Amino acid sequence: MQLDLRLLEIFCRVYEERSFSRAGEKLWISQPTVSGHIKNLEEALEVKLFERLPREVVPTQAARIIYRHGELILKQRQIALQDLMAFLNRLEGSLSLAASTIPGEYLLPQVLVAFRAQFPKVEVRLTISDSKEVCDQVVKGKVELGCAGARLDILGLRYHHFASDSLVLVVPRNSRWRSVTTISVEDLRHEPFLARENGSGTRLSFEKQIGRSLDEFNVQAVLSSTNAVKEGVKAGLGVSVLSLLAVQTELANGVLKTVRIDNCETLRRDFFAVFNKRLTLSPIAKSFLDALESQAEELGLTA
């Protein structure tokens, strides 16, 4: 019994999409062609792979077994081709990447410029979300490499620390905060506070280091982006704890100021590259990680 790689690729796409027509769109072939290939594969293997329902196709147990191995086989094929291209100094292809807000918006743009200059034939597909969603995408195989602002306890993941940054309490430059230079955690709890969502690496790092949940604070709003938090602080809606990388411009321009939290002189947060333990990193991903570490070192974030 032989398993053609093209048939395996079509099968895996149908398995992921749960639809012959959507799989065909992804593969640039017609729905009848996809259906015919799956039928041929089922006949060759002498086993039913999908239950055909009115609105979707449902994988059988046999399909789950084939997919578990098939995605690894296709990944290894991609890695083999990329290894050859790297050996020939012609690295090309694509890299699926997910990043949390701070590395995604304040580190990766510079990395992408340098990486694209070195490897112009590599396409990087980047999505930005919070650290929990980044880790979920990596463990589910939706992206090859993640950049997260927290190390989460999720099975199947490998973490590689590549940078660190300070966490700072930022406040508006108004009469309430003009002469304030320090504040205790207890007093901070009663100040109007702007929080990131629960999956945010910034929030997780701050809560861990002060030993308290932000649910105990006077939270005025929970915002899903760092920019939204910054704009809220500027407008006087509340104060917040953010990564120093994210507020350097506002601090330099005098729009915001920092206030030291008593007994928290060294609030830090780490950034991690996140990999799926079951998968081997492609040469493209390894090259991107090298570029990421070089940029972090250049910015003085590797201490």
Model description:
With 303 residues, the protein is α/β, with parallel strands linked by helices. The chain has three domains: 5-85, Arc Repressor Mutant, subunit A, CATH 1.10.10; 90-163 and 270-298, Periplasmic binding protein-like II (D-Maltodextrin-Binding Protein, domain 2); 166-268, Periplasmic binding protein-like II (D-Maltodextrin-Binding Protein, domain 2, 3-Layer(aba) Sandwich), CATH 3.40.190.10. It has twelve helices and twelve strands. Strands 3, 4, 5, 6, 7, 10, 11 and 12 form an eight-stranded mixed beta sheet that branches. It has a two-stranded antiparallel ribbon with strand order 1-2. Strands 8-9 form a two-stranded parallel sheet. Strand 1 and strand 2 (57-59) form a beta hairpin. Helix 1 (5-17) crosses helix 3 (31-45). It is elongated and about 80 Å long. The model has no long low-confidence stretch (mean pLDDT 89).
Explain the layout of strands and helices.
Elements lengths: L4 H13 L2 H8 L3 H15 L4 E3 L4 E3 L1 H27 L5 E8 H6 L1 H11 L3 E8 L1 H9 L5 E4 L8 E16 L9 E2 L1 H4 L4 E4 L4 H10 L8 E5 L2 H9 L5 E4 H9 L3 E6 L6 E9 L6 H16 L5
Parallel strand pairs: 3-4, 3-5, 7-11, 8-9
Antiparallel strand pairs: 1-2, 5-12, 6-10, 6-11, 6-12
